[in-house]
Design goal:
The chain is mostly beta strands. It contains three helices and 20 strands. β6 and β7 (about 85-90) form a beta hairpin. The longest helix has 11 residues, at about 35-45.
Length: about 280
């Protein structure tokens, strides 16, 4: 570890995230990791880090940080204003920050989650092979707080300094490809038609555990309940209120509400950047 990063302003929710804690679902441990996996990889690529090096995932209101050594950073993911010591700085490409200067990552102008990557990565201690904060199980570091000092790893190599980088825009409308099952037969034919024809919207109650929706209820054939069974990333679970919930990285590994279908994993990065009120359409595919 070489140096530290002091949290001046932690924002609404800022967590350490990397490529995730894979392979432990049989122990009841979710994957966790950066919700926008593409943003994680691109930010690290621009800095010469390993693709899954740990970064900060800031939600909606950003954060402010002060390094105790000079370092190079990339702020990407959801677009937001970036300042260094009060002066505007570039978003989406590497920026040099001097020792003792304050990097201020502002509130998002679109999307939900901004990513702050530093050359060398955030070097908190790994737990079960990952440095990610898991909000459901409590594994990994706690969400950052004002005054925290985060350890930094050594930079891998001199980063490339491009004029621009291909950051996807947050979705104005979210299309989620769905494979029906394993419990689609727990719902009426009308419910299946509704799911794939109606427009839902992202609920303000969404979080890292699941993207909650607002829209028409899905009617079940039976009012019975299932024994708890395994849940996967992208599972679309339907709780008693009848409105689908798309499980994201911190989802529980078991559950008793029926899963009407599963969203393909590549679509989940856009789901992570869909702001409250964003229209959602589920499509079969």
């Amino acid at each position: 570890m070489t140096g530290g990063l002091t949290v001046v302003r932690s924002g609404a929710l800022t967590t350490v995230q990397d490529g995730g804690r894979r392979g432990h679902a049989h122990l009841g441990v979710p994957r966790s990791g950066a919700l926008d996996a593409g943003a994680l990889r691109l930010a690290n690529l621009l800095l010469g880090n390993a693709p899954g090096a740990a970064v900060l995932e800031a939600t909606l209101t950003g954060c402010a940080l002060r390094p105790d050594r000079a370092l190079t950073v990339v702020v990407g993911g959801a677009p937001c204003p970036v300042k260094v010591d009060g002066r505007p700085a570039a978003w989406g490409v590497p920026v040099r920050v001097s020792a003792g200067s304050v990097l201020d990552v502002g509130g998002v102008t679109a999307g939900v989650r901004s990513y702050v990557a530093v050359a060398g990565g955030i070097a908190v201690e790994p737990v079960l092979g990952s440095r990610s904060t898991d909000l459901l199980s409590g594994l990994g570091p706690a969400p950052v707080r004002d005054g925290d000092v985060l350890p930094l790893g050594p930079p891998a190599r001199q980063p490339v300094l491009p004029d621009s980088a291909p950051w996807p825009a947050p979705p104005a409308e979210l299309t989620l490809p769905l494979r029906l099952g394993p419990r689609a037969d727990w719902f009426t034919p009308g419910a299946l038609r509704t799911l794939t024809s109606a427009t839902y919207r992202v609920s303000q109650r969404s979080n890292r555990i699941g993207l909650r929706t607002e829209g028409p209820e899905l009617e079940r054939v039976s009012a019975g309940e299932l024994p708890s069974e395994g849940m996967v990333l992208g599972a679309v679970q339907v709780p008693p209120d009848g409105r689908p919930v798309v499980f994201l990285n911190d989802h529980p590994t078991t559950g008793g509400y029926p899963v009407i279908g599963v969203v393909a994993e590549p679509a989940l990065a856009a789901a992570a950047q869909a702001a409250a009120g964003t229209p959602i359409r589920f499509t079969l595919g």
